[in-house]
Design a protein that fits this description.
Elements lengths: L6 H30 L7 H6 L5 E2 L8 E2 L1 H32 L5 H34 L4
Antiparallel strand pairs: 1-2
């Protein structure tokens, strides 16, 4: 059974996809800034990461005092954040390619591979973040 969509239905689907992508992008941009506002004192990171012996990294351009563990956690979070953004862009590109395939099975297959690859990448990135967070938090007891 072959289903065909009317041009109006295709236009409505594209509009819904574009709107949902914009909402997702807005949430992705706004969420980190709203959760980052929960830390009232930047020096509380020393207590959170547990070492308590803060070194000054102001000469290397970071402009703050932090221990090595806190700096490592920050670098890991930033790197995984960028990788997450790239994975989301891959998923969005796959969705765009699927929507513009116009029934071409080859392009739909390529788009499906992009989406699956992006979602698998997001899962791997999330697991890497969970493992890194566990290692950093458990090293406070050493």
């Amino acid at each position: 059974m072959h289903h065909t969509m009317t041009p109006r239905a295709v236009q409505a689907a594209k509009c819904m996809l574009a709107t949902s992508m914009l909402v997702l992008l807005a949430v992705a941009i706004a969420a980190p800034s709203s959760t980052g506002a929960q830390v009232a004192d930047p020096r509380a990171a020393d207590q959170q990461y547990g070492l308590g012996s803060a070194s000054s990294f102001t000469n290397v351009g970071l402009g703050k005092e932090d221990d090595l563990k806190g700096t490592l956690a920050t670098v890991i979070n930033i790197a995984l954040g960028f990788l997450g953004i790239i994975a989301v862009i891959i998923v969005m590109f796959g969705g765009f390619k699927w929507m513009t395939a116009a029934g071409n099975e080859e392009q739909v297959g390529e788009a499906r591979k992009l989406i699956v690859g992006g979602v698998v990448g997001l899962l791997v990135i999330f697991m890497a973040w969970a493992i890194a967070s566990f290692v950093v938090s458990s090293s406070a007891r050493i």
